[in-house]
Amino acid sequence: MPYTYDYTNAVTGNDCAPARYWRFAKMTLTRWTREKMFVFDGHSYPYLYHFCNKTWKNERGVEIPIFREILFRHQTARILEVGNVLSHYFPIQHDVVDKYEVAPAVLNQDIVEFTPAKRYDLILSISTLEHVGWDEEPREPAKLLRAIEHLRNRCLAPGGQILASLPIGYNEFFDGLLREGKSPFTSQHFLKRVSKRNYWIESDWEQCRDAPYGRFVAHAIVIGTIKA
Fold first, then answer.
1. Which of 156, 164, 169, 186: disulfide with 160, CB 3.0–4.6 Å?
2. According to the CATH classification, is domain 57-227 in 3.40.50.1000?
3. pTM across the whole model
4. pLDDT in tens, 166-195
């Protein structure tokens, strides 16, 4: 199935029927009364309204449309996703590595130990790398850098690229790298949440550096790129 699948109409979840109807009504009303589009890197995208993770309340509302479009532009590429995220919103055909989430066709392996038989043209990661080393016991903050280096040196094909989103304010080690000008990415773009209605605008590091990480929602994200 191609990535043109209409993911906005998918119904997910195991709630009882009344709960599903109530959630659908809330989502639909929100969709009608809020802004429909946001801008990122010169392109306009529709906000995502989806049951999974209640995307109308958090950063998934902008992350998924951006990364879905990237997939659409690379349908013939060999693709790896680090962290099982996109499959919750539409059918996928690419490889997925996720250390913890057990799901069909997902390889449960630590990314720093993953060595593919053939390298990938495109590697994607959505709000996952900030957990590497940071949410593990014992905590090993620098493991984030080792993971990115491993992806670049052992998993990425010549001429390929890595694209990853990370929230600002969640991982203090990563935020410190940004503050010190030591980002592991060769280029990066920022989006900032500017309203409780979950509106997002393009921004820069200076405007995002003090953004807090709220309860289950980021108030700023960075989307970084590394090209081989």
1. 156
2. no
3. 0.88
4. 999 999 999 999 999 999 999 999 999 999
